[in-house]
Design a protein that fits this description.
This protein is an alpha+beta fold. It is 45% helix and 17% strand. Strand 7 and strand 8 form a beta hairpin. Helix 5 packs across helix 6 and helix 8 packs parallel to helix 10.
């Protein structure tokens, strides 16, 4: 940390003014953190933050470190992006000693605490800490202040194909939706199930029930509408109805005629028959 009235020089001789414990760094000189776990920044939310920065200024500095004299963000990329939109020429920064895993860890914690990342971005951040910096799940959990099962459950989400993850994010599905769908191990079946969840849209509870039914082999399906594939079956049904009326004392008459386009079946019931007389005309293609 630089003291009052001091300057920080990079390798090219560029100087950054230090106002007390805060470095005022040109916005254009800052570089994003390569270990930033967040990949998607809502432009609408950035615009809202930019408006606030324009009116009130940046009340809390971002955290930076210097790599080869170049200021690199450790935490605060969202505020930096909004500052650029707002047209701020320089922003307050605090220099921290953070390299490697520590820089990635601070960036991850920053995002977890400030604005909810989606569950897949969190999982990607966890995986990067573990794989790139050689941490165990237990070590990652200890540094993140959570339990090892929490880390393990997050990492399991990455078993979902990228395409399905993107669709879940776009549809606004929750982490619990994702965990329920993960129980279906076949990608094609899970993809079809995901379509039904999105089209519903289904709640978490409804999704879990659907997964249970699918895994138990008793998935509820809509009963198909019966189709009469043989017209003769239909005609036999009509003939049977006419015969039933005749046996009941109703002098019903039935006539059938055919054209190139359809079969016409006309049933005539006398008006003096029991109940109301009526004429039934049936056309079958």
């Amino acid at each position: 940390m630089l003291g009052n009235g001091q300057w920080h020089k990079d390798m090219g001789g560029q100087r950054y003014k230090n106002g007390g414990k805060i470095l005022m760094v040109p916005t254009a000189d800052l570089r994003p953190n390569p270990d930033q776990p967040r990949r998607n920044f809502s432009y609408e939310k950035l615009l809202e933050l930019a408006q606030s920065l324009s009116e009130n200024g940046m009340l809390q500095p971002v955290s930076i470190t210097f790599h080869g004299g170049i200021p690199v963000l450790v935490a605060g990329e969202r505020r930096w992006r909004a500052a650029k939109i707002a047209g701020l020429k320089e922003i307050p920064c605090i220099e921290v000693e953070a390299k490697g895993a520590q820089s990635a860890l601070l960036a991850l914690i920053e995002n977890l605490q400030r604005e909810d990342m989606n569950c897949f971005e969190e999982a990607e951040g966890f995986r990067r800490l573990i794989q790139v910096y050689g941490l165990t799940q237990e070590e990652a959990a200890q540094r993140l202040g959570c339990t090892q099962p929490t880390v393990a459950n997050k990492l399991r989400l990455l078993r979902l194909p990228a395409e399905q993850r993107e669709r879940m994010i776009e549809a606004g599905l929750s982490e619990r939706h994702a965990r329920a769908l993960l129980r279906v191990t076949d990608d094609d079946r899970r993809g079809a199930l995901l379509n039904r969840v999105i089209e519903g849209p289904l709640t978490v509870a409804a999704t879990e029930r659907l997964v249970e039914e699918l895994l138990a082999g008793r998935e509820k399906r809509k009963r198909p509408t019966p189709l009469i594939r043989d017209v003769r079956l239909f005609l036999n049904t009509v003939n049977h109805a006419v015969d039933t009326m005749r046996r009941s004392g109703i002098d019903a008459q039935a006539e059938k005629s055919e054209t190139e386009d359809y079969i016409e079946y006309v049933v005539r019931i006398p008006k003096n028959a029991p109940h109301d007389g009526r004429k039934l005309s049936v056309h079958t293609a």
